[in-house]
Write a structure and sequence with these properties.
Elements lengths: L11 E2 L3 H6 L11 E3 L12 E2 L1 H5 L6 H8 L3 E7 L4 H12 L4 E7 L4 E6 L4 E3 H8 L4 E2 L8 E7 L4 H10 L11 H8 E4 L4 E7 L3 H5 L6 H9 L4 E8 L3 E3 L3
Parallel strand pairs: 3-5
Antiparallel strand pairs: 1-11, 2-13, 4-6, 4-8, 5-6, 7-12, 9-11, 9-12, 10-11
Bound molecules: zinc ion.
């Protein structure tokens, strides 16, 4: 995939990320059972839990959580205002109260918070920001890690969705006879809310080196070159699939 223009955002799509996780060989469909996919060998503890290893890690992110961020099972929100241990505790308290957030750790060293989302749950950045209150602001100029879902107002139709994809640095074959189908598969369109959701990952080598424009401000600016607007960011837990009745 070639990307042109200085403003090209180096991102890769989490192509069918949820479906890929559902292919987990460990997951055995049982009739009538409700299964959660994408989890580790260990069952997640009930309720929100703070990662003690992250608290001890030099970078504020333990190896296990870092791996989960890389594999797009954990998410990261860069935060301003994290200066003391009390700040970390306050952020963690707020995160623990956000519906859907499961494991979490806030860190001054990391300059943000890392967290997982429970199976079948969807957490919005706006909900996290609301829980955090005014003291801890999302750092929209900070480099992002891992992946997230961009919620874009006005991208609930194929044409504007293509414009957003292109603004994000993707080449779209508009002449392809399958283009409508392909875009509708890539972009989750909500006709009621008039939004399109784009799953993106910032896991390119360039992004890791900090060269890519992988900040919320840069992404919002890219989307704003179209008629659409970045209105929120989503973090999705692994899909819950029910078999049988
Ligand atoms: Zn951790």
């Amino acid at each position: 995939m070639s990307r042109g223009g200085a403003a090209a955002v180096l991102i890769t799509f989490v192509l069918g990320g949820v479906q890929a996780r559902a292919d987990d060989p460990k997951a055995e469909p049982k009739k009538g059972a409700k299964l959660t996919f994408g989890e580790d060998d260990e069952a997640p503890p009930p309720g929100p839990v703070r990662c003690e290893d992250c608290k001890k890690a030099e970078t504020g992110l333990c190896a296990k959580c870092a791996k989960k961020v890389d594999s797009q099972h954990f998410f990261f929100v860069p935060l301003k205002g994290l200066k003391t241990a009390e700040d970390e505790a306050a952020v963690e308290k707020a995160l623990g109260g956000v519906e859907g957030i499961q494991a979490f750790a806030a860190s001054r060293k990391l300059k943000g918070a890392v967290f997982s989302v429970a199976g079948g749950k969807h957490v919005l950045l706006s909900a996290i920001e609301k829980a955090l209150g005014a003291k801890f602001e999302t750092d929209r100029k900070a480099r992002l890690l891992g992946s997230a879902r961009l919620v874009v107002e006005g991208a609930n139709e194929v044409t504007p969705a293509i414009a957003v994809l292109e603004a994000l640095g993707f080449e779209v074959d508009k002449k392809s006879p399958l283009i409508d189908k392909a875009v509708k598969k890539l972009v989750a369109m909500d006709q009621e809310k008039k939004t399109g959701s784009f799953n993106v990952s910032w896991l390119t080598a360039e992004a890791k080196k900090g060269k890519a424009t992988n900040t919320l401000d840069a992404l919002a600016a890219a989307v704003a070159t179209t008629k659409c607007k970045l209105v929120d960011v989503g973090f999705d837990g692994p899909a819950e699939i029910s078999f049988g009745k």
